[in-house]
Amino acid sequence: MKVTIVGAGAVGASCAEYIAIKDFASEVVIIDIKENFAEGKAMDLMQTASLNGFDTLITGSTNDYSKTANSDVAVITSGIPRKPGMTREELIGINAGIVKSVASSVLKHSPNVIFIVVSNPMDTMAYLTHKALGLPKNRIIGMGGALDSARFKYRLAEALGCPASDVEGMVIGGHSDTGMIPLTRLAARNSVPVSKFLSEEKISEVAEATKVGGATLTKMLGTSAWYAPGAAVSSMVQAIACDHKKMFPCSALLEGEYGLDDISIGVPCIIGKNGIESIVELDLTDAEKEKLTTSAEAVRKTNGLLEETVN
Ligand SMILES: NC(=O)c1ccc[n+]([C@@H]2O[C@H](COP(=O)([O-])OP(=O)(O)OC[C@H]3O[C@@H](n4cnc5c(N)ncnc54)[C@H](O)[C@@H]3O)[C@@H](O)[C@H]2O)c1
Ligand SMILES: O=C(O)C[C@H](O)C(=O)O
């Protein structure tokens, strides 16, 4: 399995590191527009190989897409991250052009590639990639829900006073401060609903902290997070590489599922060697459906800005 990572910044490098440590890919190529940056990150990571015990070959390239040829998976992290006080949606003006151009450069050299789109505003960037490339919908996956669900489990574990491995929880909807929908009704500790252990008030505090998880870290770090994003992407790449058929909430192009059409938004997907192998349609309550409709309206509003930001 050959993986391209576009963008050698915080998320791209973290993603490369986790993929290498998990040791399931033969080759990772990191590519960046900044002279020698990807080469430097790749060399630094390769110098951890004997320490961390992996055999994955990591190389870097400054904008030479021929080096990415015949990649099975490409992760797009290029673009700018937000600063404290900003929303992800405010990044569209710069990131849309970058995502569109790097995605077509990757595809030229890797006609069978599966894309994982990370750059923000992620749901809109995934939608743009669909519109720009016209690939089958299984081959373009937006990463947001895997990260948001990990943050939900972190917050649940904190409230329950237990390890995160004891907790199940999923976040669907748009990857935005207001659009995320932590499915509190389905959250559980070892299959026991969390409402058995936590008050309604505590559960809604957990949900609110989850939704602003990215903004909270951005405020603390001065830029957005990278460890959990990198880990989330690497798990999705691994599910494709190993044909795990694992369920992750992903931003998928919907064609009628959940009553939505022509939009990429977070819903549970089965991820395997073909990318999105199927979309799982949950029986949502009326209140959850209403939240998903509102979240989709906000994503559509951002999608509507694409015409004026990218040609
Ligand atoms: N979807 C998610 O869950 C999630 C999580 C974290 C970050 N993000 C997003 O990922 C993006 C990257 O975040 P980061 O913290 O790694 O930022 P960063 O600034 O550390 O890295 C971005 C890299 O992209 C490179 N780049 C810019 N234009 C390029 C181009 N045309 N071709 C190749 N490389 C180019 C830059 O040189 C830089 O090295 C941001 O948009 C951020 O909002 C999304
Ligand atoms: O918060 C951000 O802007 C980055 C990313 O989307 C995240 O959730 O960490």
Whole-angstrom Rg: 19 Å
**Biggest sheet, in brief?**
6 strands, parallel
Helix content: 40-55%
Order of helices and strands: EHEHHEEHEHEHEEEEEHHHEEEHH
**CATH class wording of the largest domain:** Alpha Beta
Overall geometry comes to globular
User: From the coordinates shown, what is the CATH architecture of the largest domain?
Assistant: Alpha-Beta Complex
Q: What is the β-strand count? A: 14
The hetero molecules present are: nicotinamide-adenine-dinucleotide, (2S)-2-hydroxybutanedioic acid
CATH topology of the largest domain: L-2-Hydroxyisocaproate Dehydrogenase, Chain A, domain 2
List the keywords:
binds nicotinamide-adenine-dinucleotide; alpha/beta; 22% strand; binds (2S)-2-hydroxybutanedioic acid; three-stranded antiparallel beta sheet; 14 strands; L-2-Hydroxyisocaproate Dehydrogenase, Chain A, domain 2; six-stranded parallel beta sheet; 311 residues
Quick overview:
The strands form four sheets. Strands 3-2-1-4-5-6 form a six-stranded parallel sheet, sandwiched between helices. Strands 7-10-11 form a three-stranded antiparallel sheet, with helices on one face. The chain has a three-stranded antiparallel sheet with strand order 12-13-14. A hairpin with a 2-residue loop joins strand 10 and strand 11.
Give the secondary structure arrangement, pairings included.
Elements: E1 2-6, H1 10-22, E2 27-32, H2 37-46, H3 49-52, E3 57-62, E4 73-76, H4 92-109, E5 114-117, H5 122-133, E6 140-142, H6 145-160, E7 167-168, E8 171-173, E9 180-182, E10 188-189, E11 192-193, H7 200-211, H8 213-221, H9 227-241, E12 246-255, E13 261-272, E14 275-279, H10 286-303, H11 306-309
Parallel strand pairs: 1-2, 1-4, 2-3, 4-5, 5-6
Antiparallel strand pairs: 7-10, 8-9, 10-11, 12-13, 13-14
The structure holds nicotinamide-adenine-dinucleotide and (2S)-2-hydroxybutanedioic acid (LMR).
(2S)-2-hydroxybutanedioic acid binds near residues 81, 147, 214, 218 and 224.
